[in-house]
Design a protein that fits this description.
The chain is α+β, with helices and mostly antiparallel strands. Helices cover 31% and strands 34% of the residues. Strands 3-2-1-4-5 form a five-stranded antiparallel beta sheet, with helices on one face. α1 packs across α2. Keywords: Membrane, Transmembrane, Transmembrane helix.
Length: 119
């Protein structure tokens, strides 16, 4: 078995630590992708603003199965394709128009830019 010259531990054990660290990093990226990946893309890379609409698609909030709290989804059309995402406010009404900001290259990365709550 080969030994690591610095700390005299087997190289195989060091490899397993590297894999564990990579796995933890990937899990963190997955859990916080909105903050780590999506927001910087929308803040620093060119975006386009499009008119969207609140649709009758309910998304339960945290503990929504007990409290009945939910938010509606919104949808918009970009380059003849329909994209849908959750809204961020419980007070939206179905059919309400809003402005959606989306990335030109990756339109599935989007957010509400302007609505009656941001005026």
């Amino acid at each position: 078995m080969k030994l690591n010259p610095k700390n005299k531990k087997p190289l195989k054990k060091n490899k397993s630590n590297v894999y564990k660290r990579i796995l933890v990093l990937l899990i963190i990226l997955f859990l916080f992708k909105e903050i780590i990946i999506y927001k910087p893309i929308l803040n620093f890379i060119r975006t386009e603003k499009i008119v969207g609409e609140i649709i009758n698609n309910k998304n339960s909030l945290r503990r929504g199965q007990f409290t009945g709290a939910f938010v509606y989804s919104y949808q918009f059309v970009y380059k003849n394709k329909i994209y849908t995402n959750k809204s961020d406010n419980e007070k939206f009404k179905v059919g309400e128009k809003l402005i959606v900001e989306c990335n030109e290259t990756f339109p599935f990365i989007n957010r509400i830019y302007k609505s009656r709550f941001t005026d």
